[in-house]
Design brief:
Elements: H1 21-32, E1 35-36, H2 37-46, H3 56-68, E2 72-76, E3 85-89, H4 91-102, H5 113-119, H6 126-161, H7 165-193
Antiparallel strand pairs: 1-3, 2-3
Helix pairs in contact: 1-4, 2-3, 5-6, 6-7
Length: 201
């Protein structure tokens, strides 16, 4: 009896279940070089998590699924007694990643609890609503500082790899968060100027 798995069959000849966004994060992370699940998570935490996070609980099941689908090739490379698998993208995996990149984005969603609270803040005095804006602005200022600290390394990697896109996204994040913080300050100033007796708690 011949033992054939999905890894033995080209993706061109099988119907693969729709991949999750986390699956594409993984394919993108290993497209540059082979990595372990731990290394993928660490890289996510240093880069995409500022706009698209992925947890260990998402990454490891997807690694298994992508390997079974023949989009990744996992090789055991233990370190001492610690089990370790390094994943490399396959030709079919690269085709899948390129196909996804060429399709228009489908998700344009931002989840911001501060904006949600501000939306309903009409039941609060203006001074209390201003505190929501102050908290959002402070967070965004802190995020700008963290992103600016990453910028020199991103420039260095761009120069080494000749890949301008991670730095482009980083600078977009810096500019967006600077704008957001400035907007929070302008809105807060407007609320502070408004009549604090307009609403009572």
């Amino acid at each position: 009896m011949i033992d054939i798995t999905l890894k033995d069959i080209s993706k061109r000849y099988i119907c693969i279940v729709d991949l999750s966004p986390t699956a594409y994060v993984i394919l993108g992370m290993v497209s540059r070089e082979p990595r372990s699940g731990y290394e993928i998570k660490a890289l996510v935490d240093d880069t995409t998590r500022f706009f698209w996070a992925a947890s260990y609980g998402q990454i490891y099941p997807e690694l298994k699924r992508l390997s079974e689908a023949g989009l990744l090739d996992g090789q055991d490379e233990p370190r001492g007694e610690r089990k370790r698998t390094i994943y490399a993208i396959t030709a079919d995996g690269e085709d899948e990643l390129k196909g996804w990149l060429r399709r228009p984005p489908e998700t344009f969603e931002m989840r911001e609890e501060g904006l949600l609270k501000l939306f309903f803040a009409g039941v609060l005095p203006a001074g209390e609503a201003a505190q929501i804006l102050r908290a959002m602005g402070g967070y965004r200022r802190g995020l700008v500082e963290r992103l600016r600290a990453i910028e020199p390394l991103a420039k260095e990697k761009r120069d080494e790899a000749g890949d301008p896109y991670p730095l482009m996204v980083l600078r977009g994040g810096i500019e967006f968060n600077e704008w957001f913080a400035d907007w929070c300050e302008r809105m807060e100033a407007g609320l502070v100027r408004s009549d604090p007796k307009k609403r009572s708690s």
